Structure to design on (371 residues):
């Protein structure tokens, strides 16, 4: 009887050990699965979108260089035009690891664009509209990585891109502020300038023109004497890949602009958006007479400029270099290479623009503090 009892104890012990072994094995397999799932989640979290880099994307929609309109930009990307990237700040090149996060805006010389423009864009469009009296503010820190390498040097818009603007949403739908970067082929440094476009008096907007203000380097009016003749490189210009920042701040009808870049002077401008400087023909500046009047654009501005008119901000890459015949318009028709609209070939041959923003914000305009 004792022998049977001892046998039962031994058998129970063996079954217990087997059960524990299986339990341990199952637990180990289960934990391994959990770890694998955790790793997968980590992989997903490493994929960043533009909305992860610059959180204000819910306040904007976008038009891409192929004509695609997108209203919801949260967790959205399009690898040919609009996406997030990382880089090594010391080299300005993509590394994919341990770098600074940027939002990339890229667009070719020729694609599909908006109904009122000849130029392609991958550009944010603010959903909220505001009058100059109500005001608003937009800022950003960026670097221009590429502008078109082809174009006609006699054309003011060649080799340039717009990186931020105020656009009117009614009336003539003109632009009281456009911030440009432009670099001639063969130059190391390019120019940053901004343009004010008049809000033309009367119903005919055909006489509208821009006045261009230099920030670093030249203004828009500095052009070549022949298609392949380039002016001297600007001494105080900005290189491709060199960071700079801007702020457009509209408060009670007055626009305050601030431009900053390491190693360069900080530049500020003040511009009244509700009272014109150009009510009469004799008020047209010499720059405009040289650049726009020869192509028939010699209008005057309405007395109250953009007063009471709805406006909105835009930011990104608005390529000003197109393939149109310069003989039709020596200001805006750049005569650049487009490869019949083949976007891949344009990217391959340098006929596109690419802008990287590492931060930006949009909000309410305010009276600037004294510096």
């Amino acid at each position: 009887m004792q022998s049977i009892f001892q046998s039962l104890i031994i058998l129970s012990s063996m079954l217990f050990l087997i059960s524990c072994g299986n339990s341990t094995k199952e637990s180990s397999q289960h934990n391994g699965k959990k770890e694998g799932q955790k790793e997968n989640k980590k992989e997903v979290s490493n994929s960043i979108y533009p909305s992860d880099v610059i959180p204000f994307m819910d306040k904007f929609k976008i038009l891409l260089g192929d004509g695609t309109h997108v209203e919801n930009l949260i967790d959205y990307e399009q690898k040919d035009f609009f996406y997030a990237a990382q880089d090594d700040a010391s080299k300005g090149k993509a590394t994919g690891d341990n770098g600074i996060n940027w939002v990339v805006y890229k667009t070719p010389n020729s694609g599909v664009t908006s109904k009122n423009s000849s130029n392609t864009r991958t550009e944010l469009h603010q959903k909220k509209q505001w009058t100059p009296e109500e005001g608003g503010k937009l800022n950003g820190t960026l670097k221009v990585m590429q502008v078109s390498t082809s174009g006609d040097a006699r054309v003011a818009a060649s080799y340039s891109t717009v990186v931020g603007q105020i656009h009117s949403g009614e009336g003539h739908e003109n632009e009281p502020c456009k911030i440009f970067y432009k670099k001639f082929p063969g130059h190391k440094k390019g120019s940053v300038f901004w343009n004010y476009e008049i809000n033309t008096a009367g119903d005919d907007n055909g006489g509208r023109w821009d006045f261009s203000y230099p920030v670093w380097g030249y203004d828009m009016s500095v052009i070549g004497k022949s298609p392949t003749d380039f002016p001297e490189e600007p001494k105080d210009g900005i290189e491709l890949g060199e960071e700079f920042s801007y702020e457009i701040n509209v408060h009670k009808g007055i626009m305050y602009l601030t431009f900053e870049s390491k190693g360069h002077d900080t530049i500020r401008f003040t511009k009244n958006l509700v009272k014109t400087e150009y009510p009469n023909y004799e008020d047209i500046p010499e720059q405009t007479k040289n650049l726009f009047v020869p192509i028939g654009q010699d209008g005057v501005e309405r007395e109250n400029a953009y007063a009471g008119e709805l406006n909105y901000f835009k930011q990104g890459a608005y390529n000003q270099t197109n393939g149109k015949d310069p003989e039709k318009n020596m200001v805006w028709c750049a005569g650049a290479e487009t490869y019949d609209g083949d976007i891949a070939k344009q990217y391959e041959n340098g006929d596109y623009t690419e802008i990287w923003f590492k931060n930006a914000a949009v909000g309410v305009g305010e009276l600037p503090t004294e510096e």
